[in-house]
């Protein structure tokens, strides 16, 4: 492939990424925010608010990495959480979400980031797990099935850690949390009304300049 052909191929992939993000803005699951990096179009920053289930009240931030070959067959996106997530589908050492339980093979004609984020949200509400040959965190799966009390304790530790670190904004992140500012009250009321969430005082503020393009419906 010539340099010109490679350039055209990459340009088409970048254009496809823009189209996919536009679609994502219209269909992102409730409670999830995603904004691209200002500096790297293939790095997106996200946060998910959990309002029910074992992970209730958690605010889990994550980063989406889209390889240069993304939109090609077999090229998965990568989602890495910022804080520990004790879950059978999350690798304990890297904090990366395993996509293969939902997407055994990645087909760009069928699979999009909307489906990935729907899966991401769903893992926090799972009440059982199918029998798979391997999972990202086998210890978590075994504890879920045979020692549920300790599993709940581990999950609560993750929720607490997410809240403790919520104001630790990652360098370069387009989603930033700030402590309460009365000037943000109207925005907060609007935000939590749309999320059908718990009282406004229970959660931190997301700085308005980073919510202007928020992805909620």
Explain this structure to me?
This protein has 217 residues and is an alpha+beta fold. It has a single domain, classed as Ubiquitin Conjugating Enzyme (Roll). It is built from five helices and six strands; from the N terminus they run αββββαααβαβ. It has helices at residues 3-27, 113-123, 138-146, 148-164, 185-195, and strands at residues 32-36, 43-49, 59-65, 78-81, 177-178, 205-206. A four-stranded antiparallel β-sheet has the order 1-2-3-4. Strands 5-6 form a two-stranded antiparallel ribbon. A hairpin with a 6-residue loop joins strand 1 and strand 2. Helix 3 (138-146) crosses helix 4 (148-164). The longest helix is centred in the first third of the chain and has 25 residues, at 3-27. The radius of gyration is 18 Å and the shape is globular. The chain starts with a helix and ends in an 11-residue tail after the last strand. Mean pLDDT is 85; it is low at 208-217.
Q: Can I get a quick summary?
A:
The protein has 217 residues and is an alpha+beta fold.
Lay out the secondary structure:
Layout: H1 3-27, E1 32-36, E2 43-49, E3 59-65, E4 78-81, H2 113-123, H3 138-146, H4 148-164, E5 177-178, H5 185-195, E6 205-206
Helix pairs in contact: 3-4
Pfam family, one: UQ_con
Domain UBC core: 12-164
Protein name: UBC core domain-containing protein
Keywords summarizing the entry:
6 strands, two-stranded antiparallel ribbon, 5 helices, UBC core domain-containing protein, Ubiquitin Conjugating Enzyme, alpha+beta, four-stranded antiparallel beta sheet, 217 residues, UBC
């Amino acid at each position: 492939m010539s340099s010109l052909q490679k350039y055209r191929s990459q340009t088409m992939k970048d254009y496809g990424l823009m189209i996919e993000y536009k679609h994502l803005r219209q269909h992102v699951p409730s409670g999830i925010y995603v904004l691209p990096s200002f500096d790297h179009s293939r790095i997106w920053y996200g946060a998910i608010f959990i309002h029910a289930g074992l992970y209730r009240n958690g605010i889990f931030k994550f980063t989406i990495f889209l390889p240069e070959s993304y939109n090609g067959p077999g090229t998965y996106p990568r989602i890495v959480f910022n804080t520990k997530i004790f879950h059978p589908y999350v690798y304990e050492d890297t904090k990366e979400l395993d996509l293969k339980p939902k997407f055994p093979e990645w087909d760009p004609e069928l699979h999009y980031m909307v489906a990935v984020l729907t899966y991401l949200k769903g893992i926090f509400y799972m009440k059982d797990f199918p029998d798979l040959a391997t999972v990202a965190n086998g210890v978590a799966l075994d504890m879920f099935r045979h020692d549920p009390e300790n599993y709940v304790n581990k999950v609560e530790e993750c929720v607490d850690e997410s809240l403790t670190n919520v104001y630790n904004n990652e360098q370069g992140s387009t989603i930033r949390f700030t402590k309460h500012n009365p000037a943000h009250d109207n925005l907060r009321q609007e935000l939590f009304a749309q999320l059908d969430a718990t009282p406004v005082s229970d959660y931190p503020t997301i700085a308005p300049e980073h919510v202007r393009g928020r992805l909620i419906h």
